[in-house]
Amino acid sequence: MGKDRSIIIGSDHAAYELKEKIKTYLLDMGYHVEDAGTNSTAAVNYVEYGKKVAVAVSDGHYLKGILLCGTGLGMSMTANRFPHVRAALCSDIFSVKMSRLHNDSNILVLGGRIVGDILAFALVQTWLDTEFEGGRHLERIQTIDM
Ligand code: RB5
User: Can you list the domains of the chain with their CATH numbers?
Assistant: First the structure.
């Protein structure tokens, strides 16, 4: 399957259940989903899973990733340490849309203790459906890693 229909997803224990639901949502839409873990509600360190997804996006193996933890804060802090990663922690549709249009976000971060299932699905759908505008926004994001 093409890279544009493949997504890598990861979470810690706090968002394990939402990760599983989003995984099913993506599979139902025909995406190939690589699950970087965690695989249960047993307590883990979110950094381990955040790094796995961030590395896969940073090195180009995946164009897009989704990360979840309780608040999304730890995952976004972790992921944004990696070159070329633009991880967007969002809990509203406008921010998700703008993170694609203006920032070309390549990792969507959600807080499993912040958003409910239905909102999470809508955030994921909006994120996937919205294309980067490019132009002056491309020039801007190109300076992030400088
Ligand atoms: C786990 O208790 C919690 O700290 C974690 O899921 C996340 O919210 C960290 O940022």
Answer: 3-145 (3.40.1400.10)
> How far, in Å, from the CA of 138 to the mean position of ligand 1?
32
Long-range contacts of 81-89 (CB under 8 A, 24+ apart): 81/54, 82/51, 82/54, 82/55, 82/57, 82/58, 83/58, 83/145, 84/57, 84/58, 84/60, 84/145, 85/54, 85/57, 85/58, 86/141, 86/144, 87/54
Q: Please tell me the residue having the least CA distance from ligand 1 atom 3.
A: 70
Instruction: Please compute the mean of the pLDDT values over residues 60-79 and round it to a whole number.
Output: 98
Per-residue pLDDT reduced to its tens digit, 77-93? 999 999 999 999 999 99
Ligand 1 pocket residue status of 45, Cβ below 6 Å: no
* pLDDT tens digits along 6-27: 999 999 999 999 999 999 999 9
